[in-house]
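Worked Example 4.2. Consider the chain below.
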Amino acid sequence: MKKQKKADLPISGRPNLYDYLKILALITMLIDHIGYYLFPEVLVLRLIGRIAFPTFLFLVGFNGSFRWRRELFWRGIGIRAFTSFVAWYFSFGSFGANILIAILLARGLIHFLLETKNKILWYVSFLLLLLSHSLMLNFLDYGALSFFFVLRGWKASKDKQGFFLGIPVMIWLSLQNIQVFGFGRVNGNWTQYCILIACFLILILLFRILTKKNYTLSWKGWWNKIILRISQHALLFYGVHIVLLVILGLSKFGRL
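Applying the procedure from the previous section yields the following structure tokens:
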């Protein structure tokens, strides 16, 4: 297997498409978690949140760096411990592993496969992930989809000319992403379902643009600094917003 080239990453001081896609993921994730912790009856908030997961995981793969990150590990474990304690003690939230754990595992698997340089292991790993998806849903949010989206992002950065061949795969993954939490037909509301599919198609188009060139989307003044700061501190944003929303949710539903 040829040595992988590192993807075109954000340039310091100049936000680009990669940064803005990460901001999109953070905003839709925030909307999703507001729905989960504060307004579980408002399904549309959770549906909007379906956009966050594939965006995050695709960018992780597209980044092309799968080295061990201690900060990612400890924050993932810390947030998992916090949410598990809240779920156990207050009966609020979920015991499922958070997206940071999913990212950590996906990065670890791809790093291992790249180091072994054994094509058979790639096929075996893909088959095992596919077969174990339903089982993995019991302890890992999104199950094997975490690995598949990262693999697709990595493949897109490595083989930019073959992106269109992977579009059916991306569409299939996106549909699975909707259904993984039982949002299949959106309680019979096909209009919302079709709008969400259209959003995924737009997202795939943005991924295509990213694979061709990581365009600079720079504005003068304070806006650039805000976008870059949020993009660079996404891990901090994730941890802080989870803690705040859990506390607000416990307070709202009288669990404190």
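Confidence is low (pLDDT under 50) at residues 1-5. Residues 17-252 form one domain. Compare this with Example 4.1 before moving on.
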